[in-house]
């Protein structure tokens, strides 16, 4: 593209036959000289990808949510076969409406539930536990030696005698606080899940599984019991169910964006065309995702929503150019070609910056975030074609209404010779006093914001599932579990690796016991369980229940005898791996970091060739690894996203000063975004981490559009004040429209039943609006110091002496009332500083 020619004011061509179709670059000629074929190809592509989009699925995967390359998770995956139930599992508490669990009707209902859940596809059946499963056993020391059996006796018949036996067995089972509530008013089904449905070989459908659980809940609650369900699968199921309501927000966003655009253009047909192209972009994105076998998940499902909002805002800029050209009398086809010439490079730069904000997320070693990055990048790639190519071509057929074009010209003409009050206010920031105040205030905000941002934590800051509202059904169920069971769902498991058949050696169990004691002193730990604690309990039982013997006996025969009756979850088949269960009060960031630090310190001091203490399994262990990855990725991500944006800005402006002016407002916004997260009690986690990158990548668009026109006018000889006024007149309104449209679109997420989406909506709306304010306030203030511009060059007969590398015709020294010769948006790399 010949940038210099593109920046010049294009001549008014009223009749299409007067236009030279051989003008323009190769891309323009190839597209606009074959418009019918381009439209037909897009129509066929829309039909094809629309059909493909019908196969797009909404699901989630447990392993996609965890950082599989982190050493903790790698340890878990290496020993996964020996740690069944410590990854993805459900806990289902069943409570009688009245009385205790020692009731025949209650136990009959529990048995039916147990059998029905046992047969659900995806349940890891050998490791499922409840009062009715054979692996729930009791052990006792009697005068005849060790005795034991299943908790529910083989001859159970629901009689009072059976209830007495059952109560005794429960009390001897060690399951009080784990499978049975301490007050005997509920019992639990522990349901570990497989990654794939064994019947189909496909990944487990969490949405379908969650619906099956809800059907079971509705069915058996009629029998006089209350059912509470927690676990990753239920969280995902509730998220997916809530996402179905997000479609309402999508429709609302379409209505809001269309209304804002119509208010700006007052042209129905062109407004509808912009909306149509944005929807086509989303449809193509869905079709491509299905073609490449991607699935939407609760974390990426709103990306198409964001793509639509970006498409609407960029489409408004294309309409702005065509509307102004048509208002001057240019034929609609020629106006579309002029707009394509002027906006293709600038629009490409803006969308590439958007793409950078997404692509840097690929570096985060969590599959769900990497998928989000790919899904979003596909959406931006589609926008490059639908907004930069298809929309101008379609507008060349429809144009804009003559009334809307005339109205826009009248508004511009009315502003000639006088500045609107808002423009006058913003122009003050190009003056030294206002610029100094703006820079000083921004610096103070940045310093204070940085100090506050030091309080930002990584991980969850609330109990339960922070992804859902505090009053959601899931979080109420979780609160019930925490209140009634000591063995919470937040379990961290330390793996102790030994040589085969050596896991019950005294020196190994002594170290496990020592670590368990240290962990139990931490404020976030409820209890621990391990082979060491079982061995101490057995020693007590062997000695008539005398707790003076509650200690590890340095007698290998005695320790080995415990192994024969120990629950299989405490050690593996060949006795080469022990599991130390750490039951936590919650999975808050501070709780996890304290436990991890203690285990790491202990492992560093006690690991030998014979025994190795490894982190980590269990839901809390995996979350601890995720927090570590997110914390490291946050800084790395900011480094890469800012590095890429700086390179793109330099390639666009060819001036380090212009880069500083464009990027510093983004830095301030990133700092203030972290402050907002601290004030709102948000932690940095999988759900919120992408927002920071997206805000930077999309926010730099504003600087590209404003700064490009400023530099163009300065090179044409305008003062900074005049150049900024032209930027406001030609792109300021569009920048405001972009900021407001994007902010309103994502602000609708605040009403989502899913809390993390509401959080994303708040953060994105803040970043979009604050980046817009930065481009209109802080950018001219910084330009006063870094880009003041040269004195207006001397003119002879109205012509500038000397060369004009940008190919711009400067405004007359006296200040002409004629329309300035600057396009609506300009490819800014043509107007950069040259030295």
UniProtKB/TrEMBL annotation:
InterPro entries hit by this protein = MMPL_dom, Mycobact_MmpL
Q: Where in or outside the cell?
A: Cell membrane
The source's domain of life comes to Bacteria
Q: Can you list the GO cellular component terms from the UniProt entry?
A: plasma membrane
* Bilayer topology: Multi-pass membrane protein
Q: Which Pfam families match?
A: MMPL (PF03176)
Domain Membrane transport protein MMPL: start-end pairs: 218-432, 486-786
Q: Which residues cross the membrane?
A: 37-56, 246-265, 271-292, 299-316, 343-364, 371-395, 434-452, 637-653, 659-680, 687-710, 730-751, 763-787
Q: Could you tell me the keywords of this UniProt record? A: Cell membrane, Membrane, Transmembrane, Transmembrane helix
Q: Where is this region: Disordered?
A: 797-835
Task: Report the protein name in the record.
Answer: Membrane transport protein MMPL domain-containing protein
